[in-house]
Amino acid sequence: MKSSSTSSIILILILVLLNLYSINSTYLPECAEIINKYIGNSAPYVGIQMTMVDQSGLVTYARGRSLSCCQQYPDMIMGTMNYPAVFSNSTNCNGLNGADLVQPFHVTGVRSLFYDRGSFYFRSNGSVQVSLVEGQGQYSFNLTYCKDKILVGHTDSRSFVFHLSNVNWGSIGTETCGDAPRPPFPNPAAPSNKVSTTSTLQASWNEGSNYYSLWETTIQNTGGVIINNLVLASTMQLKDATTMWRMNTVSPGKYTPVDPSLGPNQSYKFSFIKVGHDYPIFTVAN
After folding, report:
1. Rounded-to-integer distance, Cα 56 and Cα 213, Å
2. What is the CATH number of the domain that holds 98?
3. CA 66 to CA 142: how far, in whole Å?
4. Can you tell me the distance from the alpha carbon of 84 to that of 144, in angstroms, rounded to the nearest whole number?
5. What is the pTM of this model?
6. In this protein, which residues make up the domain named Carbohydrate binding (predicted)?
7. Res 217 pLDDT > 90
8. How far apart are CA 1 and CA 23, in angstroms?
């Protein structure tokens, strides 16, 4: 009788382990279908928010953008930034008498989550690779639940929830008290006069109390005729008169490409440094 009972327990344990293994190793078609919507998208970047929970109850939240992807890795969504993250037990907030206080998700406790772009990626088949900094480990797993823009996966020690978007999220830690709420960067505006503009954040920093960001903008002629003497208008504030490249200033807030003609389906890139981190908006002024 004892032998039979022991055998039953062993069988149950084997079934449980097999079930856990199958949950974590089975490719779900719905997950692959969602991921493939973002691979090779006309917008080169995917905005990703991610939340992790480990067995101790530590919660980590991060957001950033990922490349979607490239000729070398056509089946991937690959991270392009280090994904600044906040943690549920941050101790980077000075308390009374200089003592550190545990203050959940305090932005002064922001730390990088990954080493480089190869540390975080999705494959088109629904598999995920996550290599965390600070000795937190490397995790390879398959997504186990996917619906709309939400993807879920787990290992034996952590659970992961991802939210994908066609828009890019700003970096955590750039907010200050009194800032207006910042939505994710909007999708590029609908083409106006057969012209579209798409801007990509290259870097952001502060100099004292002043915040600046470096952007690259692509102008695309989506029509079938040559566009001459295009003028774009924007309400953004440049850092100074020397911080826009490959565009001439027509008048305050209005700019024209150095090359005056843009053929059908051709694109033109220019760069600039502006005040603030908000997404720059351009409209066709002529």
Report:
1. 38
2. 2.40.128
3. 19
4. 25
5. 0.52
6. 195-277
7. yes
8. 33
